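job 3f2a | input accepted
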Amino acid sequence: MGAETPLYSNEKIKEILPHRYPFLLVDKVLSVTDGPETSSREGRSVKAIKCVTVNEPFFQGHFPQQAVMPGVLLVEVIAQAGALAYFRPNDSAGEIMIASINSAKFRRPVVPGDQLEIHASVEKDRRNMTVIDGKIFVDGQKVAEANIMAYVTLSNR
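job 3f2a | predicted structure (157 res):
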């Protein structure tokens, strides 16, 4: 993977997501693509990056002898990337909160030094619920995937 110029830097991501260190898990966004109907959120997708370092606080306890990124945090990475796909430039402040996790699969451990490439898309958008589908790749190999239903609060919906 080359050093692509980010569409959203970490600072821009913090304008969109309410998360902060150590729970802001998306480092940069490489692309955001609208779906087939630009008036709809459905089909919007994002490609984002998370650089996994040995300094991550969760590695102290998961696991001291062999550092492995927890699967629950991989799901959270997908959810955060999905939120970045969901929010459009003219949206007011809002939040997306996980309501259910479906079809989560973990194909190999994520370890320090891995660079996660997250692909997330809005599959459904109904009233105050959305469905996000996401996949995480390391060096082109799929390492995790999940389908997430989330509750959305936006003041301009």
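job 3f2a | The chain has a mean pLDDT of 92.
job 3f2a | closed
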